[in-house]
Structures are given as C-alpha cells and as structure tokens.
C-alpha cells in the first residue's frame, strides 16, 4: 500500500512539475534593447496566443512538448519565429528586428546582399507590401511610382517597357527585336514583354536598376533591369489571404500558404485571381471591353539540407482572358494627300456618318470582337552553393508564352481592316551559372556565363479587310483605279503569315569591386556576347474575288501580296564598364561610370514594304544592332537618420537606334523596324525619402529627361504629312521619308515626378493593437510624343494622377479603403495612326477613377 501511494505521489509530482514548466515567460525587446509593448505571441500550429504588456513582458502556457515555435509579431517589426528546444526556468529574452529603415534597404542587384546606399548604381526599390498597398499589382501600375520608368501597352503583346525612355521600340510590337530592359523574376530572365502584364505573386521586393547593367545580369540590359524577388517557402507554417473589391465589379483575391513537407524541405503555393468589368463600352455589341480576367499560380519547393546548399524549384502559370483592350477614336487630321483621299471624304463616299470625336465618353462602335487571350509561365531550378567566401549559383529555366488575339484595326464601324490576329507561340530555355563573393579582403565581384535559346512562332497570323476597304486604297475614281468598285473584289481578302524566329544568345560576363585605396573603389566590368537569329517568313493571300483578270489581280496585289524570305544573321560584341566609387562614410557614396553596351541585331517579321516592282524590300529585313555609350555621375547621401537623398546625372549616346515605324502600305500594318543613325538621351534624377520612426514616411522623386534624334535622315513621314511631294529633277514626286534629325524621341516626357506620404498613429480595433493610417501618392508626366517621327497631332498631353488610402493595419490584419485617380483625370497613354495613314488616329485610354476596399490577414 505504501509503495502504491509512493508511486501515485511521484506521478502527481511529475505532472505538476511538467505543467509548471509548460508556462513560458519572457520579455520582447527591439534591437536597441528597448522593450516592445503589446507584441503578439503565438504558438505555431495552435490557436494559443497572448499579448505582451507595456513592458514587453509575456507569459503563455502550452501543453505540448518541445521543440515548437513561438511567433512574435508587432507593427513596425518583422514577424519572427523563435524555436523552443526545451523549457527553462528563467524568462526568455527575444529580440525583434524593425522593418528596414529606408536607408538600410538590402538589395541583391549585384548578385549579393548589400545595403542599397552602398551600391554605385541608380536603383529604386519597392517592397512587396508597399506595392500591394499602393495597388500596384503589376508593372503597369508600378510605373506611377518610379518617374524614370515608362510602360505603354495597347495589349499584353504590344507592350513597351522603357527606363529613361530607352529599352524597346515605341508602338506596335515587332517580335524580331530584343528588349533593352531586362525583366527578371527570381533570377530568371523573361524575354517576352507580355510578362509585365501578369499579376504579381507573393512579391518580396522589386529592384529597378537604371542604366546599362550587362556585366551583372544574364541578358543584355542596355537601359536597365527589373530584378523581382518573391518570398521563399518557410519550414514554419505561414499563410496569408487578401481580398480586394471595388467599382466596375472589381474583385481580386490572393492567398499563399507555406510550410514544411519533409525535413529541410519547405513548400509554398500562391494563387491570385483578378476580375473587373471593362471601362469601354461597345455600342454595337452592347458589351464592355478593357476589363480584367486574370488567374495566376506559383508553386515552390525549397530544400536547405545545410547552411551551404539551397535549392529552389519554382513553377508558375498565368492565364488571362480579358474582354479585349480596344483603342478609341481620338481624332482625324488632314493629310497632304489629295482631297479624294482624306478620311472624311472616304467615309462620306461609303455612306457612313463622320466619327464622333469624343474619346473620353469611353464608347466605341467596332464590328469585330476584341480578344487578347494569353497564357504565360514556366519552371525554374535555382541552386546556391557556398564556396569559400562566395556563392556559386546555377539558374536553369524554361518558359512559354501563348498569345491569341482578335482586333478591329480600323477602330470603327466600317468594314475596312476588320481583323488582325497575331497568334504567337514562344518557348525559351535559359541557363546561367555565376560565382559572386569576396575574393580577398579588398576585392569582391561576380563572374558568370549565360545562354538563352528562343523559338518564337507566328501561327497563321491573320489580317483581313472587308467590303469598305476598296475606298481606302483607291487613289482616284478613273482609269485602272475604277476597278476597285468591282463587287466583292476585296471582301474577305487577307493574308495568313507563318513565321519562325530561332535565336541564340550566349555571353560571359564579369565585374569586380576593388578597394584599391581606403574608401575608394574601382569597379571594372566586361561582357562578351554572341547572338544568332534564323528567320523563316511565309505570307500568303486568301479570299476576295476569285478572278483571272490581270488588272483586278494587280489591284488586289497592291493591297496584299505574297511574301516569303529566309534570313540568317549573327553578330558578337565586347562591351564593358568602369566605375569609380568613393565612400568615405556610411552617409556618402559618390560614383562615376562609363559603360558601353549593345542590343542585338533585329529582324523584321511584320511584313516588309514593297519595291516599285511589288517585291518585298529585303534590304529592310535585317536591322543593325544598337551600340551604346553611357556616362553617369551619382551621389547617394544620408543627411540625417531615416533620410536619404540621391542625385544622378547621365548621358547616353546610341548608334543605329532601333525604332519601329509605320508604313502607309496596308501590308505592313504592324509597322517595320528601322535604324536611326544617332540618338542621345540625357537627364537628371533626384529622389529622396524620409522615415520618422513609425509615424511618418515620405518619398519623392523627379526626373528630367531629354531624348532626341541626333541624326535620323530616313524617318517616316508623320501622319499629317502623308502624301507629301517634293520637286525631284523638276518633277513633283511623292516621298515617304523625311529628315527628323533634332526631333524628340517618342514616349519621353521632359518632366516626370512622383511622391507619396503615409502618416500613422497607434490604435486598436477591438482587442487588436495596430496603427491607423492615411496615405497618398502622386505622379506627374509632362507632354510627350507618341509617334516615331515628331508629329503635330500624335502628342499626349501631360497629366497628373493622385491616389489615396485610409485604414488600419496590425501585424496580422489590415483593413483599408483606397481610391485611384481621385480626380478622375482623363488622359491618353498612347496615340497611334490607323493603318493606311488616311488621317484617322486612335488612343489607349488611361483608367478612370476606381475605388474599393482591401482586407488582408496573415496567420
């Protein structure tokens, strides 16, 4: 009996001791040792939670045995997990790290982690959370936050992403040219500009590098690069959900979940869906266009078997089926053609009413449905292995892009250019291997190799005209031209194009950072690149009146004709840079850079202009590479705690600038590529930010850009000069080109500015501690040209956009309302001449005022 009681007493005592030890006590402090009041303490994997008191002290009980995790979170600090390996009698001391101050942001633009202000490159950094709060869920929204970034898109394919006005050709996209702005997500280069239209998925940080960066990144980046990183999977279970609702039936839902699936193996799944009604109404179809219908998925596996090895396997796909992105009729101008060939006369002769010029009524009257369906995605494997004082990285990736559009390219109710379908299929394979790290105490750097293979196919790309097209191509009502009135001659007449571009780009690059004198660094870099492109182009006509009459066949051939050609071209280039950087203190970084860069040879796959004999002008099939010389001077400062002020001045000269021009010939509706002999862009950028504790943050940036054709002797005529004649050997002769030397480059505003501010104060919603905030941002662009050759009519007026948001945020939950384009500003993003240059031009409208609310919850 005594023995039994002794055993029972021992069990009770053990249980009592275990229960007593299951209560964990501690104190939470910041990095400065000051207690963090009212922080939230959660036992991971349970609903057991508590809050620290005003002194940062907490006590929490658990019945589970170690090991487990405590998650500590507080507004203004990074949420952190602390592993509890065993119970202890003494209170824990847990330290939280504050969210990065603006002057302590870490970037990986030089392929290693560095404080932003120490990097001698002009960089803008936007955190993923900041982008989400500003409603910038894709690059198109992001451009309002960075003055030196320009993005123009009439749809996902026809996207121009530029930095400082340089990068890609302005206007309709021609697949035969490479972008000059590198676009990287988790180290993977994404070749198609359509990638910028997809919704961000669980973004951690966006770094925007300005100026050539070819010695750091895999692909040529003659104008700059976007370096986007997403959050990695975590072994500790985490999840977040977000719901946005707004006018135009806008609804956007996002979620991500992460956690361990095996020892040292974490997984994450992120999903995003966006739906919004269109902002443009088609009166003939009684249907809204220019809406959003996006769905995105991203899955990742992250294996970390040791401190030296990290393996990340990622896969993503985005699917978009929006109700088209039509252009609206923006105006009609007189050309220098005869009165018979003016747009108003043509419309009148066809029996239609003149178009109503009221673009901001947001109404169209087209008779072909608009569709821009796309899917884009891929898979990548990233391996990081620490060797010595550096890291060896291998990034292997495959990506695809499928594009299936339908457009009404006469922009009206007429049956003229009724159909334009540039169906495309794209595959890319890329491999990058690089080593980055410290070579000696005074020398660090990166060396790497990169290869990119692409296969871009145009599949039965279709352009088709209707019953009204005859009047647009007829030059007079007499003689042979009278044959265009033949019934059905051009009805359903069109072309189908099958083309293939197979390209290979391979490079080796290296850059070093040598502190050869205390505080004075020299940074040399070199890059050797080889590019090869093989083109197979085959365009055949179909439809229209079936006839053997030579006169009628000649009239049809003047509208569309068969074209077939093959091109094989390659080139190589050695380029580089040299930078001097002086960093006497942590508050000052002065640097100067000279660099050369190049953009590969281009090829035309949008149809070529024809010679006087009606044959394709093969002299225009290949476009010479761009060669860049760039000078830059930068000053990065920290004048006081929490503040930064940066100044950058630059001058960029380009030889054989690649530009996209519009031909008056219908058969090259998509335009073709050409070279301007010399181009210069120079400018000054000033940006600054200030963060006062957690109460106030302010940012502002302004950029002055001046871009001109120094020499462009063979520029296309602007719309209003179409039909221009000059005396040639005493005879009035119609010309198609002019000298545009001294004219401004398209898409560049002289003045660009952005700014924002957020003020917050502590408060509670129910029992939840957090902060109430009010925030806003503003962007301004001055007037800019919207045509390859300066035009009197194709200019976009300057505009200002103001956005705002108001709400509550805590470590777990955020609730706020938002308004974009508060003033409901009417503005164009782009203007372009209709095919055939008869005087009509259309525009891409910016979004009207939108508003809504966001709820975000993390657990």
Question: What this model shows, in words?
Answer:
This protein is mainly beta and 859 residues long. It is 6% helix and 54% strand. The chain is built from six helices and 53 strands. The strands form twelve sheets. It has a 22-stranded antiparallel barrel. It is globular and about 105 Å long. It starts with a helix and ends with a strand. The model is unreliable at 1-21 and 666-670 (pLDDT under 50). Belongs to the TonB-dependent receptor family. Residues 1-20 form the signal peptide. Residues 363-822 form the TonB-dependent receptor-like beta-barrel domain. Residues 116-225 form the TonB-dependent receptor plug domain. This is TonB-dependent receptor.
Looking at this protein, list some descriptive labels.
single chain, 859 residues, mainly beta, 22-stranded antiparallel beta barrel, 5-stranded mixed sheet, 6 helices
């Amino acid at each position: 009996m005594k023995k039994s009681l002794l055993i029972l007493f021992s069990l009770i005592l053990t249980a009592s001791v275990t229960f007593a030890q299951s209560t964990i006590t501690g104190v939470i402090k910041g990095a400065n040792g000051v207690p963090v009041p009212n922080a939230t303490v959660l036992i991971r994997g349970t609903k057991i939670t508590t809050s620290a008191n005003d002194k940062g002290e907490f006590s929490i009980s658990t019945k589970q045995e170690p090991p487990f995790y405590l998650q500590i979170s507080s507004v203004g600090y990074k949420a952190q997990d602390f592993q509890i390996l065993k119970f202890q009698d003494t209170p824990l001391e847990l330290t939280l790290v504050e969210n990065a101050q603006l002057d302590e942001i870490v970037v990986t633009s030089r392929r290693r982690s560095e404080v932003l202000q120490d990097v001698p490159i002009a960089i803008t950094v936007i955190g993923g959370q900041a982008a989400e709060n500003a409603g910038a869920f894709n690059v198109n929204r992001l451009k309002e936050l960075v003055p030196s970034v320009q993005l123009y898109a009439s749809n996902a394919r026809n996207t121009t992403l530029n930095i400082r006005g340089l990068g890609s050709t302005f206007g309709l996209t021609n697949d035969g040219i490479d972008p000059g702005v590198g676009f990287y997500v988790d180290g993977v280069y994404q070749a198609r500009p359509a990638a910028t239209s997809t919704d961000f998925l669980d973004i951690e940080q966006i770094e925007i590098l300005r100026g050539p960066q070819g010695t750091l990144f895999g692909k040529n980046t003659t104008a700059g690069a976007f370096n986007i990183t997403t959050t990695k999977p975590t072994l500790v279970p985490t999840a977040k959900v977000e719901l946005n609702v707004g006018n135009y039936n806008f609804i956007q839902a996002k979620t991500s979940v992460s956690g361990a699936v095996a020892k040292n193996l974490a997984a994450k799944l992120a999903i995003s869906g966006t739906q919004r009604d269109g902002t443009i109404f088609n009166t003939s179809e009684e249907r809204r266009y220019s809406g959003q219908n996006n769905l995105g998925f991203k899955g990742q596996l992250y294996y970390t078997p040791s401190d030296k090895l990290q393996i990340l396997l990622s896969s993503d796909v985005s699917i978009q089926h929006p109700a088209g992105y039509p252009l609206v009729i923006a105006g009609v101008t007189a050309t220098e053609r005869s009165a018979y060939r003016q747009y108003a006369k043509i419309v009148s002769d066809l029996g239609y009413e003149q178009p109503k010029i009221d673009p901001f009524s947001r109404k169209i009257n087209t008779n072909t449905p608009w569709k821009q369906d796309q899917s884009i995605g891929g898979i990548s494997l990233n391996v990081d292995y620490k060797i010595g004082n550096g890291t060896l990285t291998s990034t292997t990736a495959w990506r695809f892009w499928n594009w299936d559009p339908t457009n009404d390219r006469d922009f009206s109710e007429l049956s003229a250019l009724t159909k334009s379908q540039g169906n495309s299929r794209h595959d890319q394979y890329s491999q990058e291997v690089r080593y980055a790290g410290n070579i000696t105490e005074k020398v660090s750097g990166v060396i790497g190799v990169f290869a990119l293979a692409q296969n871009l196919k145009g599949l039965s790309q279709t352009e088709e005209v209707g019953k009204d097209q005859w009047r647009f191509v007829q030059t007079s009502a007499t003689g042979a031209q009278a044959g265009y009135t033949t019934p059905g001659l051009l009805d359903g007449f069109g072309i189908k194009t099958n083309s293939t571009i197979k390209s290979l780009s391979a490079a080796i690059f290296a850059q070093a950072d040598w502190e050869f004198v205390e505080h004075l660094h020299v940074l040399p870099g070199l890059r050797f690149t080889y590019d090869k492109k093989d083109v197979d182009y085959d365009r055949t006509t179909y439809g229209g009146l079936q006839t053997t009459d030579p006169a009628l066949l000649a009239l049809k051939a003047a509208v569309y004709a068969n074209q077939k050609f093959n091109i094989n071209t390659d080139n190589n280039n050695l380029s580089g840079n040299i930078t001097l950087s002086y960093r006497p203190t942590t508050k000052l970084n002065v640097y100067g850079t000279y660099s050369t860069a190049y953009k590969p040879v281009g090829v035309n796959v949008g149809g070529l202009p024809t010679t006087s004999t009606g044959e394709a002008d093969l002299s225009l099939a290949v476009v010479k590479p761009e060669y860049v010389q760039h000078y830059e001077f930068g000053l990065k400062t920290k004048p006081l705690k929490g503040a930064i002020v940066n100044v950058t001045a630059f001058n960029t000269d380009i030889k054989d600038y690649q530009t996209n021009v519009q031909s008056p010939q219908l058969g090259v509706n998509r335009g073709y590529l050409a070279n301007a002999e010399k181009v210069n862009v120079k400018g000054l950028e000033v940006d600054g930010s200030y963060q006062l504790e957690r109460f106030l943050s302010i940012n502002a940036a302004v950029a002055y850009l001046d871009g001109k054709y120094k020499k462009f002797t063979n520029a296309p005529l602007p719309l209003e000069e179409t039909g221009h004649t000059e005396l040639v050997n005493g005879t009035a002769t119609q010309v198609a080109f002019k000298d545009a030397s001294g004219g401004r480059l398209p898409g560049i505003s002289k003045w660009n500015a952005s700014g924002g501010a957020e003020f917050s104060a502590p408060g509670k919603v129910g029992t939840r501690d957090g902060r109430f905030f009010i925030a806003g941002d503003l962007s301004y662009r001055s007037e800019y040209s919207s045509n390859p050759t300066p035009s009197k009519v194709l200019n976009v007026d300057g505009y200002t956009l103001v956005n705002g948001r108001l709400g509550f945020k805590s470590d777990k939950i955020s609730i706020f309302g938002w308004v974009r384009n508060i003033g409901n500003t009417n503005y164009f993003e782009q203007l372009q001449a209709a095919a055939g240059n008869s005087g009509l031009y259309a525009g891409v409208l910016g979004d009207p005022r939108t508003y809504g609310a966001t709820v975000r919850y993390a657990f």
